[in-house]
């Protein structure tokens, strides 16, 4: 079998590409994942999510992640959208709100997007 590499935009893509994911998604799982990716399609929400996910303690106070170039009420709005999509969990402790990535979110995304031959069984 010959592997052909093509440039699509600035990305080199090899054809045929290995299949993605461990299995096809059910309708319910596709709806859930589509909601997650739709929430992350906004650049501000993607930045907020990445800041929470990358925080060394596994959770971040809103104070730690809010400097994304929008007002505090707008940050709150975007965090609400991330919560509604099931991407993050937030908890109020006194006057502070802490956010963490919802359990299972990162592994589910990684499994769906990685080539099937890279999955660990």
UniProtKB/TrEMBL annotation:
Stretches assigned to the HTH arsR-type domain: 25-121
InterPro entries for this protein: ArsR-like_HTH, HTH_ArsR_DNA-bd_dom, HTH_MetalResp_TranReg, WH-like_DNA-bd_sf, WH_DNA-bd_sf
Key words of the record: DNA-binding, Transcription, Transcription regulation
PROSITE patterns xref list: HTH_ARSR_2
Molecular function (Gene Ontology), one example: DNA binding
Classification via Pfam families: HTH_20 (PF12840)
UniProt keyword Transcription regulation, yes or no: yes
Domain of life: Bacteria
NCBIfam families: HTH_metalloreg (NF033788)
Protein name in UniProt: ArsR family transcriptional regulator
